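Class prep. Protein, please:
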Amino acid sequence: MAVSDEALMRAVRGGELPRLGVLFERYHLILFEFLSRVTGSRHVAEDLVQEVFLRILKYRATYRDDARFEAWMYGIARNARADYFANREKVVPLSQEAFQSPTEDRRPKRRSSSNGNRRCFKSH
């Protein structure tokens, strides 16, 4: 009979860190599919799967005996996703005005040369 997820997590919490590898093998693909759906990016999901298991390791002491491992893991995954989007650079959408041609009063002023003509090329 296979060892339960909860028993494995209690062992990890107790210092048997290699047991986390068993949980990773059981859940990394399921977690990847979940994170792909909620982020819309397979690339981001790959990074977040790693982040989730790092957090499981980091916060293993907070795992409670009465908690279901899967529910605890998904809570960590949701927090990792939220942190990812909160820490991304904010993208400000352009206004419609940005797509319009400039009017005369909004065009940059051209500096003219001292004789009033702009020369780009020297004639020979």
Q: What stands out?
A: The domain at 5-87 is CATH 1.10.1740.10 (Rna Polymerase Sigma Factor; Chain: A). The first helix runs from residue 5 to 13. The CA atoms of residues 23 and 46 lie 16 Å apart. The chain has four helices and no strands.
